[in-house]
Amino acid sequence: MKKTIVTSITILFVLATLVSSTFVSQTSASAISSPTLDPRTIPKYVSQLIIPPVYTPTLVVDPTTGAVVQQDYSVDMVQFSQQILPTGFPTTQVWGYAGMAYDPLTGQQLGYIEHSPSATFETVRGVPVQVTWVNKITSPSMFAVDPTLMWANPNNMATITQPFTPFPPGYAQAQSPVPLVPHLHGAEDQSTSDGGPLAWFTASGLHGSDYNTYIPTAANGAVDYYPNAQPATTLWYHDHAMGMTRLNVLSGLAGFYIIRDPNDPIAPLLPSGQYEVPLAIQDRSFNLDGSLWFPSVGDNPDVHPYWQPEFFGNTIMVNGVVWPSMNVQPHQYRFRVLDGSNARFYSLTLTYQIGGQDVLLPFTQIGTEGGYLRTPATMTSLLIAPGQRADILVDFSSIPAGTQLTMRNTAKAPFPAGTPPDPQTVGQIMRFTVNSGTPVHPTPLPAVLNNIPVLTPNSPARTLVLYEVESGTGEPLMVTLQGQRFNAPVSETPRVGSTEDWIIVDITGDAHPIHLHLVQFQVISRQTLNAAKYTSDWVALNGEPPLDHPTITLPIDSYLQGKPMAPMPNENGWKDTVIVYPGQVTIIRVRFAPLTAPSTGPSAPTPGINQYSFDPTVGPGYVWHCHIVDHEDNEMMRPYDVTA
Ligand SMILES: [Cu+2]
Fold first, then answer.
1. CA of 292 to the centre of ligand 1 (A)
2. What's the pLDDT band for 257 if we cut at 50, 70, 90?
3. Of 62, 169, 217, 320, which sees the most CB atoms within 10 A?
4. Ligand 1 center to residue 628 CA distance, Å?
């Protein structure tokens, strides 16, 4: 049976190849401008969910006490094939991180594991981590590198001019070698280990201007040091190379990084072991041969031959498997949810049927990007944006055995005003089936999970504008922060120890998940503003972006409408990525000090005093950016420097 399926798919693939090559010779754009595998032909819930393995560290032990003082890892970036589509469909060539790993449930050593999303780092608060990252990608980029963007450009290729070359083949000088740089998203780390966009390195040993290595290593690698002093949470690691992040992450370069705290009073109350599962949700599109599809014709092909403002896949993948199924016990589960997609937001629900009626299963969010929420938030729908994590508890203990629950998505793309998801495809994420067994009901949680301190600004606020530059036909040409290009002089130079309000004004048409490196921050408020008037006055003051002068601030006060809105209940914690809505002002409070610093008293951080275990003013500095990686790749990222 299986063999028959393989054969017929192979025949289909051969036919499709013939058809598509015929098209390529005639109209290359139409043949490659849509994926060839219809997602409605992919059976759902036939593959079991895969739980990523865990990297095996080399433990550095204090010879006197025997205590583990550091965890060392060696992780490669490699290309391999993976069964992402259901059995019987072709495998998919992907990139991923690879290293020695073990099965988290059995503890069994699995050897050298290649998977995407890749193995998880299981780390301990207070035990620093050192990773030797090695770029072993010797094949060209799978997708069209757009050399008209500001990008890594390892070959220093000259500016390209029209007529642009269609992809494939694209520009050989841009496709290879592939610059990569792993970034640990959400980490408190020195900028020399932060994996900034210009710290890339290639398999052939070429380096970006910010390339840095904590200790000497091979030229195709870099060693990063993560102090791991911050509270227990779910971080993730992914590629961050300049102007190529959307391609490298889509290729598969992402994974979880979990920090656990042995003194965490909440963790013992939570589901663990087989009941604790990371879920990386990513959208993808496929060709009939199983290969990943990515657009290679730009929205404004006269300016950017390949760049599109957002990639939305037509298929949902969880932990590297399309539309997986998971059998669960009648027990509470802890899911660490990551939106690892390029641009797709998700509004997630859990539905099942009682008497032919759809019923929503409520669940509880206990944590966000920086750790536990102040108080648990019970909800029936979770909104999550690219880059964000949500730690949720789902109780299956009162659901009858045999019940099937579907995790669905209702978020429009682009968010919030785009197209509703097709209920038959990207409107579905995964399925849970409740096994029979003795139900185990959950342990009640305390009312307060985390004493999130109240921060008080001790430095001036910054007003920061999100501005999209459009062509005459209204198509985006670039998306900017403050109307500035990435390589304009650094304008954000917060002092170490300061607490600042960042007043983020979104005068684009879309929501943007804004992420700051180094810090976790607090969401203070959102408020509507008269965006049309603010935009016209801002442009009258500054001119049309991209600007060639420092941005002149236009105060928001006279444009505000209505009342400020409090953060959502699931935003009452430390966050590193915040959804900024169009036509709104979103205020976040950012403290350039360790998460563990007190908020009051003589030890509270003050401007100019560094409380980190490292010096954040040393090195190439940090970035803040939109985590729609397609935006980040086209100017929606700016450097920022922490200053003494
Ligand atoms: Cu954006």
1. 23
2. very high
3. 320
4. 5
pLDDT tens per residue, range 56-93: 999 999 999 999 999 999 999 999 999 999 999 999 99
State the pLDDT confidence band at 3, using cuts at 50, 70 and 90.
Answer: very low
How far, CA to CA in Å, does 544 sit from each of 21, 326, 480, 636? 43, 51, 12, 16
The tokens for 9 are 């798919």
CA–centroid distance, 630 to ligand 1, in Å, is 8
What's the burial of 262, exposed, middle or buried (CB within 10 Å: 0-12/13-18/19+)?
A: exposed
pLDDT at 29 over 70: no
Detail the DSSP E strand segments found in 103-188: 109-115, 118-124, 129-135, 182-185
Q: Count H helices, E strands: the chain?
A: 6, 33
Dist. CA 478–CA 467, nearest whole Å: 9
**315-318 and 254-260: which strand pairing?**
unpaired
Q: How many angstroms separate the CA atoms of 422 and 428, rounded?
A: 8
pLDDT band at 23 (very low <50, low <70, confident <90, very high): very low
Question: What is the C-alpha to C-alpha distance for residues 457 and 499, in angstroms, rounded to an integer?
Answer: 5
Where residue 25 falls (left for φ over 0; alpha for ψ -120 to 50; beta otherwise) is: alpha
Domains of the chain: 2-265 (2.60.40.420), 462-640 (2.60.40.420)
User: How many CB atoms lie under 10 A from the CB of residue 165?
Assistant: 15
Select from 406, 266, 258 the least CA-distant residue to 338. 258
Rounded to the nearest angstrom, the distance between the alpha carbon of 25 and the centre of ligand 1 is 35
In the beta sheet, which residues pair with residue 512?
580
pLDDT tier for residue 32 given thresholds of 50, 70 and 90: low
The rounded Å distance from CA 184 to ligand 1 centre is 20
CA 236 to ligand 1 center in whole angstroms: 19
Q: pTM of the predicted model, to two decimals? A: 0.94
User: In Å, how far from its chain's centre is CA 318?
Assistant: 14
Type of residue numbered 128 = P
Say how many Å lie between the CA of residue 479 and the centre of ligand 1. 7
